[in-house]
Amino acid sequence: MSEPIDAQREAEISELMKGAVDLHVHSGPSLMPRIVDHIEVVAQAAEAGMATVLLKDHYYPTMPIAHLINKHFPSPVTTLGAVVLNNPLGGLNPSAVDYALKQGARIVWMATAHAQNHLDHDKKDADFKNKFPVNSKKTVAPVGCRLVDDKGAVLDEVKLILDLVAQADAAVSGGHHHIDELWPFYEEAKARGVKRMFLNHPTYVNDGSFENVAQLARMGVKIEHSICMFIPSTFYLFDHEHLKKVITAAGVDNTFFGSDLGQKNNPTPVEGFRQMINLLLDLGYDKADIRKMVATNAADFIGDAA
After folding, report:
1. Who contacts 196 (Cβ-Cβ below 8 Å, separation ≥6)?
2. Sign of the CA dihedral 252, 254, 255, 256?
3. For the domain with range 7-302, which CATH number is right: 2.40.50.140, 3.20.20.70, 3.20.20.140, 2.40.50.180?
4. Could you report the per-residue pLDDT of 3-24, keeping only the tens digit for each?
5. Strands 255-258 and 171-173, bridge-based pairing
């Protein structure tokens, strides 16, 4: 059980929520059970004074939904859309990326639930399998995706995807692929002119170390940590010492937080952000650094659309 929060701390949290940016919201509808839908999560973010939320679903692009929310439910919150290259979109499919970017997608995720690395974890790691949400309906068996060939060279279709991302000045993430695939992937992204590179939860399914996080940051890859893995939730994995070490590894200026929340039986994304701000205050981070990690770093990263 967490300690009760006094009125002064509540006020500090509320102030730091103003302008917060969440680039990792798992609202519904989805094949995975969700606690909030897309419209609800944006309304909650607006009430909290947040600036931007980005809707992410593992199986369908969210740009049309973001467009409709911005048009028909106007608020101080900018809603952004994205595309995740799992099997329903044909996997690492340049055509899906091309169409998504031309409809306003701001982030392209390489495969997540259908990365071969993710599927391998699902087979060999019972704790991983139990923590990741299960689809509410049975689907056809997934085909695993990799970023590189057997010799470690980046696949041609991935190169084309990176060209499209660079042309659109969008952001790209290595998704749930293994850290060994990510080195050539991000080097290729840099070489092809991608300016907005990041990696989510690098010490989770990607199997990155603290030193790997530092190396990625030196390459120009921003690091997004999933709030759900540091606060009480079904995804809780990492203690306070891990949090401090992983922030130190990349540096405050290269770090930001996404809630990675929206699943049933978990806090909402807004609740998660409030709990993370409280935790960062407890750990002694000053308000200027907290604001960077929950607001300005992500806003600068995603660009003018935010």
Report:
1. 169, 170, 171, 172, 222, 301, 302, 303
2. positive
3. 3.20.20.140
4. 688 999 999 999 999 999 999 9
5. unpaired
